Amino acid sequence: GGSALAVHAYYCTVLLANTAKTLVFAACRHSLGRAIHVLSRCPRAERSEKSGASARLTFALPQVMVLLAVATHSLVPLLGAGDGACADPEATGQGGGGCFSGRFPLELWYPAAALATPLYQVVYALQLVAIYCTCHTAINVDLFFFAVTNHASSHLQELNDALCRMGVRHTPVNRRRGSDESDHSADGKHGNGPLRHTSEESLVRAEHQRARYQELVRLIRVHQTITRAIKELEPVISYALFGPILTNVLNICLHMLVLTTERDNMGTNSKAFVGILFNLIQNGLYCSFGETLTHQSDRLFISIYSSGWENGCRRFKKAAAILMFQTRKPVQIKVAKLYTLSRRTFLQLLNNSYGLFNLLYQVKNPE
């Protein structure tokens, strides 16, 4: 019925999308290598304990979802909730020697011999291994994308923090006042103490301005390095993620249709529910990492105004103007030049899934 069609469409779309994603990454490995080489030139970004724990949790979430998907597909048939049509191997003699069975992790067409021991156990185990390897291969490609974007976002956050720290620093002033020996000459008359004090203060201020300028130049070079790496990555990521995001939107719709129409089949409903979670988390992580990268890049334009540029020397102001010109447009990752990875895009994808589900539901249940 409709649930079987939805399940088979899910298998086909997921397999095709992840295969295309892996092939794109493999074909563009030289561009990815150049981007990683460029990012490796940046100094190691320091992160707080809270952000480190959040990153570890985010990277562990897809792997947990893989284990949950494998566990669901392995337990549902064993509990008897996945029995589909033609579950009895003796009933397959009139149907061409095979049938669609729900007694396996994958609800596909099987010959009658596959439903008998010991071939049944062998096929069952091979399917679980195939599901685990396929999911992990797809997730590893995603983890690469998450790691690169998280690395770039950490460096951009370091740039923002460094610019803000430059603004709160005060110009060091020589507070030491001349003593009687320094302010007066040996005969008791005023010497050149105040002039010496002014000269030392000017030297300290000039040294401070030079250090600030060199620090700003270093930050500009780091920003250029990150921007160059993102430009290398964007074409690859753009087309590699287009297939998974599009199929996730479609599969969320199909799984919702299964949940609302096949209320008595707990096995199919369990797989559909896990599929919805998997697709939502995958699209959510894509958009979340893209949003973080864009947000940190967009903050740079504001952080420049917090760098104390108005109290800087002429060279510092010119360098600040250069950085401001470079950051006038934040770094963004666009999927197939249509959608920018952001939280707003994630909400639009959810809206598209619900709109498509509503259309299919009205077609199937016109009353």
From TrEMBL:
GO terms for biological process: signal transduction. The keyword Hydrolase does not apply. Keywords: Cell membrane, Membrane, Olfaction, Receptor, Sensory transduction, Transducer, Transmembrane, Transmembrane helix. InterPro entries: 7tm6_olfct_rcpt. GO terms for molecular function: odorant binding; olfactory receptor activity. It is a multi-pass membrane protein. The keyword Transmembrane helix applies. Residues 173-202 are annotated as: Disordered. It is found in: Cell membrane. Residues 177-190 have a biased composition (Basic and acidic residues). Its main location: membrane. One of its GO terms (cellular component) is plasma membrane. This is Odorant receptor 91. It comes from Locusta migratoria.
